[in-house]
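Loading example: each entry is read as two labelled lines plus one structure line.
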Amino acid sequence: MTEAMNADAWLNEHGDYLYRFALSKVHDDELAADMVQEALLAAWRGKSRFKGDSTLRTWLVSILKHKIIDHIRKDIRQRKISDALENDPSSHFFSESGEWQTNPRTWHDNPEQCCDDLKFRLVLKECLTRLPEKQRRVFELRELADEDTDTICKACDVTSTNLHVLMYRARLSLQACLQKHWFGGAST
Amino acid sequence: MKKGCDKISHLVSDAFDRKLSWLERIEVKIHLSMCSLCRSYANNIGVMHDIFSYIRHSDESGSTRLSQASKHKIKQILKEECDDKS
């Protein structure tokens, strides 16, 4: 088998899986495809480092993961995204003595049924895009990409305390936004 | 309504990202036992967490595929790389 055929086989066997993996992290078709391309190219160049102590797919995924984190880090640095920590939104949510301004109401909905509802997915997406960008990045890496604290801190250039603050603010905003636009009863 | 919901809601959020100290856990427990608003909030961010983990799993196991155009492009680039080496 020639080398070219091997590289093709990687793409054919793992390309779609890698693409889905990337897409679930970056939510952008074109960027996800670019990430897969970069990962496969890097894997091909470094194929001598593949020791076979994990499966090929696991190895490719770990390279892809690095590429994605790297991309996010560069993006945040280049565009100097540094919102959030100064402007504290908790005054929207709490009185000076720390009481809720808008009362949370208990949601009884089934999470899976929500997700299968396309209208809900649109509302969720809208609520996410309303978050300040760094908050949203951190939140998505945590909740959608399931990354650990260290990786997120490195990618987004924050301390772990900042990460907890950003996660808290994101959760407060999302909770309020979803309650207002979905769980509050008005499904528009 | 209770005072200190701002602090408790922060701890309830933190519990998803780090292990709370013994004292913090007691503090949260006592507050939640007395405050229905914070109980609702704690329930809701739990629902949100479940929603995101469901989305994560359905995205990764879905049937979305690389477009033919992207596949073709990647193939070309890998081929060039291989040709360079040989």
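Chain A has two domains: 3-78, 90-183.
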